[in-house]
Amino acid sequence: GFLKRVQTGDKGVRPLSLAGHVGFDSLPDQLVNKSICQGFCFNILCIGETGIGKSTLMDTLFNTNFENFESSHFEPQVKLRAQTYDLQESNVRLRLTVVNTVGFGDQMNKQESYQPVVDYIDRQFESYLQEELKIKRSLHNYHDSRVHACLYFISPSGHSLKSLDLVTMKKLDSKVNIIPVIAKADTISKSELHKFKIKIMSELVSNGVQIYQFPLDDETVAKVNTTMNGHLPFAVVGSTEEVSVGNKMVKARQYPWGVVQVENENHCDFVKLREMLICVNMEDLREQTHTRHYELYRRCKLEEMGFKDTGPESKPVSLQQTYEAKRQEFLVELQKREDEMRQMFVQRVKEKESELKEAERELQSRFEQLKRLHADEKAALEEKKRLLDEDQSSFSKRRAAAQLLQAQSLTANGKKDKDRKK
Amino acid sequence: MILPLTDISKQDTRTLCLQMSFIQGTDLFGYVGIEAVLDQMRSKTMKAGFEFNIMVVGQSGLGKSTLVNTLFKSKVSRKSCTPNYEEKISKTVKLHTVSHVIEEKGVKMKLTVIDTPGFGDQINNENCWEPILKYVNEQYEKYLREELHVNRKRRIPDSRVHCCIYFLPATGHRLRPIDVEFLKRLGKIVSIVPIIAKADTLTIEERQEFKERIRQDLAANGIHVYPQKEYDEDPEERILNDRIRESIPFAVVGTDKEHQVNGNKVLGRKTKWGIIEVENVAHCEFANLRDLLIRSHLQDLKDVTHNIHYETYRVRRLNESNMDFSELGLSTWLLENGTADKWESESHL
Interhelix angle for B130-148 vs B177-187, to 10°? Predict the structure, then answer.
């Protein structure tokens, strides 16, 4: 804590002894009472294959029945489902959000499976960051949706981690506190489990995956946390059904060959998980999320946007200068985009116009063509008519001539006849 | 009671949250261990320690240093402890900061006392509040800068003034112009607790009348002192704070000397006509002040400073600098990098 710094020579700060009871020893209580009034937030993300027991474990952990849906194995893409509940134990109110992956590990191609999870986590950080950077903000009323703990469910194969597991955990280890658990641990024998745990931990180490370590800096919990760190990953069994064992009803899974008791530490590590996750380290998980993971996200995000604390000659840059510079850049960019859009628009209009003109021209030429065709036909027809007329008139002439001849020949014949008769 | 499932229509449909359901007051069927979080929080805050910054303002000779020493039962301020100390009247108001680490039952606190010698001591006291105003705002500025850093400290050092004790001389009349000016201006940016200093010069009736007139003057001038009515968060708090508001300003007497009274050692001022027991509520209201400041409202003083006064300062500063990050584009960044196709579709005419 900061007091250590103070005592080793922060100038001007001396320790002072009190001559009597002042009363500020009530400070932690004052703080705690305020928190009780406000309530606590805790958000757990469960990643695991469909059917591995995520919902059952959550029900068992929180001793309640959350709404559960059986998911299909045919989701085309990994999705996340978030559900928020208000729980209360004595005077502590907890707003618990449980986020489950849907369809994780079901696809043929799992290359992008981790992406929706990363996106979800980042989105919650983003949301908080936006609130923090608002001018009028309301941080102490803000519903913190950042993921405080990520339970990664490992299939109880007994052999080793799957490559999907390693890839996913590697992508998440700098963003969230990862607590790996071995699911459905009642399918593994004790000796196999021991070997399995060792294998998993060594694979995590050799792949550089940073999982959440239970904190050792507080003497009150250092001892129990050290022991627990040695039991990772926890092998859990979940069940909300009760079976009578001896003269008690206990949460258990009943098989023909025996009863696996959830809260029996010889049977599985469920109690250890509950101890660590809730009773001992909930506050630390929340603190790490805020002071480590969120700060990292914030730092990266601001740096991406071009903000930095020191300028080119390592002189401290005021945020206002950086902001102004960024703003100028942004406005220039905006202007450029606007110009581009306008240009594109103008271009399109031109194109359309020329298209239309072209079409008009075509239409016009067709019209001309048709007109000519029509004129030609008309001329042809007229020609025909003229010929026909000529024909007709020549025929008429010939007929007239023929008639005349006939008439003439008749009269000539008549004369001849008269002549003969004489 | 189960409320119906609600869609998050705010969120982008391309995302991944399908639904948010809300179940209120779910009963737990058995032990979970959630209440252990209180102990976790307690042990973490104890380990980290607390900071508290208190400013004392008033003319010289009103007993500021003595009061602070009495409040914290230690020689926080050396002034009153050196014999034959002669107060040098400084020409201007010069703020003087001293920090100590005190510990009680495992709870460590870094206490910083900001003294304001010279306030109200000049012949011409116009604008004597300005150095104080400047100091208070400077601390807010310091905190704001650190908060806006890209690389920030895990715990931002807090030098903001959590509480300002304003010493009213026990004239018995009303607020003086200098009081009104100071309280009006500083009351807007810091939590002020006014007290009647050296109250052993007033009888109980005089004290009551004086207090009543002061309260009237405060109301008439629109001055809001701590605890401010508008920040009461729930009815319980309102009741508690109303009681406090009815008895401010506290009439206090300070001392670090102990005397024997009825076989007990008590803190008191010995006079020819009796011993004024500082911690006796029948004699003066020191104990009320101490309980308010330290035993019940210390955390609240810090919270009001952080959630209200600091935020007000921050809003003003960011508006002044025209810094609106949402304008800059956290959201446009998302637009650029998340939805390139949105841009595409806009350009199809």
Answer: 10
